[in-house]
């Protein structure tokens, strides 16, 4: 992985491809490259590091042509070197391939190819595809047919785009388990792994599904299945502005996206709250309304921050809807034997809608007869299309690798889902109306937190020089402790762990010593007094305490080093306020340590491999 762009049209391919790569930078990568069909043949330029390094290399090696492919890579097979960067070529240098995914049988394919005389230039799994296509072209096959002949040999997941000097005005792409989109522009066609690479040129797109191949020329495109059945697919218009992908004066995308969170709550709830009836109206669930009434159990599957959002949802749904809920890491769920039936709803949460493990979990659940629902941010994404029904976050593009506004919107949507199921069951009208009222107050409350950043900077001073940190929370704020720890480790590279505060004495307390930073999330809720006991235990061992609590809460000031207060709200909505200071703690710590919070090392925005 990580980002793919292909172009075939009348414009300068190098310019279009480089623009696409820049718009895919937020996904994370360690090298980049492009290949263009020029008058002198298929030429490739690659570089390790940022796209700026590729630009530097192209200053003396400009590739003039109107058809080409490009890629940003996160290393999976082979170190981040120029030789391992994409595109990869065959022995004749007439075929170039870019690839997202993992070819699981690449070792055996490589051995076979080497025995037949092929020489490899990289350590990657991708290069085997180029050599296999080289062999398939030897009998004079068209590029599209050669690619189709190779695909059955590949085991694993892939999104690939292939260029060849033998057909200089053609690109061929295929998908199995890794997203690809075809953009239809006035000056040609654009292939990409992410719509952000296309928005500058067109909003008219075709989503490729698994086991589909598309061949494009300057004038037309043709889609067929791996079984060679022609497919007619609708052209869809996607929302979004290229301007959404700009920083607009903010130092980082992460900061911009944190500051957008009041609007995110408004967008996630707009037209969905019914104050009179104390419920929510979720049009995306209308087709499965009857099935939802009969659901006996919910399983939430997700990865990373989305998993912690799901954990908050578990508390909400069990308390207010009275439905048993389990939250599972999608990467584990799909490899065990989950007990599912038609009385189970499996809710998949994913910002991108393309998270590989979550997508495979959805497919597993459908095979077992469960109702599948998606909570995703990207319209038309794989999870959105493959689940029976779902709800969009409407958080807007999230460029920062560490999730902030998307996480918040996921929790908001789960609260709306709770209202829907709760009012169908035991949730009273009065309580439903109160939840709606408090949800409507959230944008202003979040804005108050965003307008007062000095306490976050002061608290971050205790973290910036630390090597380790502990985050503690109870009940609804237990998942938020994990989310806060994840944010800190993701972007500041400080080892941090989240724990249920009641578990501190069962192991984590052994870490606490002089100056050891502990972030305690303790709003004035039903377990506030229990959380206060943690402060005594930490202080007795010399630890430094950063307390996140409700305005006016009666804490002992002698037990804390820094205090951050949040507005009062319902206990179930407290995570939506408590997470804001934790996002800023991580951001300020990263900046103090001179790290780029938008592009943390080794992380990708959309994890489309297993």
Automatic annotation (TrEMBL):
Presence of keyword Transcription: no
Domain Glutamine amidotransferase type-2: 2-219
Catalytic activities: D-fructose 6-phosphate + L-glutamine = D-glucosamine 6-phosphate + L-glutamate
Chief subcellular location: cytoplasm
Biological processes per GO annotation: amino sugar biosynthetic process; carbohydrate metabolic process; fructose 6-phosphate metabolic process; protein N-linked glycosylation; UDP-N-acetylglucosamine metabolic process
Pfam families per UniProt: GATase_6, SIS
Origin species: Candidatus Uhrbacteria bacterium RIFCSPLOWO2_01_FULL_53_9
Complex and partners: Homodimer.
Compartments reported by the entry: Cytoplasm
Free-text function comment from the UniProt entry: Catalyzes the first step in hexosamine metabolism, converting fructose-6P into glucosamine-6P using glutamine as a nitrogen source.
GO molecular function: carbohydrate derivative binding; glutamine-fructose-6-phosphate transaminase (isomerizing) activity
Domain SIS stretches: 288-427, 459-600
Entries under PANTHER family matching the protein: GLUCOSAMINE--FRUCTOSE-6-PHOSPHATE AMINOTRANSFERASE, ISOMERIZING (PTHR10937), GLUTAMINE--FRUCTOSE-6-PHOSPHATE TRANSAMINASE (ISOMERIZING) (PTHR10937:SF0)
Enzyme Commission number(s) from the entry: 2.6.1.16
Name this protein carries in UniProt: Glutamine--fructose-6-phosphate aminotransferase [isomerizing]
């Amino acid at each position: 992985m990580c980002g793919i762009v292909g172009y075939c049209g009348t414009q300068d391919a190098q310019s279009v491809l480089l623009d696409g790569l820049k718009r895919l930078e937020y996904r994370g990568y360690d090298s980049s490259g492009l290949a263009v069909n020029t008058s002198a043949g298929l030429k490739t330029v690659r570089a390790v590091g940022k796209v700026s390094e590729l630009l530097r290399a192209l200053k003396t090696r400009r590739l003039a042509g109107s058809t080409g492919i490009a890629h940003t890579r996160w290393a999976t097979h082979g170190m981040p070197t120029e030789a391992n960067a994409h595109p990869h070529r065959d022995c004749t240098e007439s075929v170039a391939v870019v690839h997202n995914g993992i070819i699981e049988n690449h070792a055996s394919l490589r051995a076979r190819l080497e025995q037949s005389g092929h020489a490899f230039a990289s350590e990657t799994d991708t290069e085997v595809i180029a050599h296999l296509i080289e062999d398939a072209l030897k009998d004079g096959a068209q590029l599209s047919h050669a690619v189709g002949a190779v695909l059955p040999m590949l085991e694993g997941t892939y999104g690939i785009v292939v260029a060849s000097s033998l057909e200089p005005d053609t690109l061929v792409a295929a998908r199995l388990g890794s997203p690809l989109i075809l953009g239809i522009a006035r000056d040609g066609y654009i292939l990409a792994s992410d719509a952000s690479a296309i928005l500058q040129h067109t909003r008219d797109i075709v989503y490729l599904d698994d086991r589909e191949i598309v061949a494009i020329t300057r004038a037309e495109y043709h889609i067929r299945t791996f079984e060679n059945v022609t497919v007619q697919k609708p052209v869809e218009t996607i929302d979004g502005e290229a301007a959404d992908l700009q920083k607009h004066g903010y130092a980082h995308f992460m900061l911009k996206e944190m500051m957008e969170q009041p609007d995110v709550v408004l967008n996630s709830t707009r037209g969905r709250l019914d104050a009179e009836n104390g419920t929510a109206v979720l049009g995306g669930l209308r087709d499965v309304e009857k099935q939802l009434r009969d659901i006996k159990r919910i399983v939430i599957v997700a990865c990373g921050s989305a998993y912690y959002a799901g954990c908050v949802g578990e508390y909400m749904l069990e308390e207010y809807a009275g439905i048993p809920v389990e939250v599972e890491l999608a990467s584990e769920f799909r490899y065990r034997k989950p007990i599912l039936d038609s009385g189970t709803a499996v809710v998949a949460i994913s910002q991108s809608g393309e998270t590989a493990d979550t997508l495979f979990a959805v497919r597993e659940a459908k095979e077992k007869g469960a109702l599948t629902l998606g909570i995703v941010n990207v319209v038309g994404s794989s999870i959105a299309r493959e689940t029976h029904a779902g709800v969009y976050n409407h958080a807007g593009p999230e460029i920062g690798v560490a999730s902030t506004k998307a996480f918040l919107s996921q929790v908001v949507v789960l609260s709306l889902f709770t209202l829907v199921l709760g009012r169908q069951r035991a949730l009273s009208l009065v309580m439903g109306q109160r939840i709606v009222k408090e949800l409507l107050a959230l944008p202003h409350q979040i804005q108050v937190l965003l307008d007062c950043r000095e306490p976050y900077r002061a608290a971050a001073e205790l973290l910036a020089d630390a090597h380790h940190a502990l985050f503690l929370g109870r009940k609804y704020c237990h998942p938020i402790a994990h989310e806060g720890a994840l944010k800190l480790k993701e972007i500041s590279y400080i080892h941090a762990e989240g724990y249920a505060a009641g578990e501190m004495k069962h192991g984590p307390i052994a870490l606490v010593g002089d100056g050891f930073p502990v972030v305690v999330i303790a709003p004035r809720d039903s377990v506030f007094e229990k959380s206060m006991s943690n402060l005594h235990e930490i202080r007795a061992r010399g630890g430094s305490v950063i307390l996140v609590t409700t305005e006016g809460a009666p804490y002992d000031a002698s037990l804390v080093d820094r205090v951050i207060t949040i507005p009062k709200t319902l206990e179930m909505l407290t995570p939506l306020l408590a997470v804001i200071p934790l996002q800023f703690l991580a951001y300020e710590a990263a900046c103090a340590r001179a790290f780029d919070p938008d592009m943390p090392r080794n992380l990708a925005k959309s994890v489309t491999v297993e």
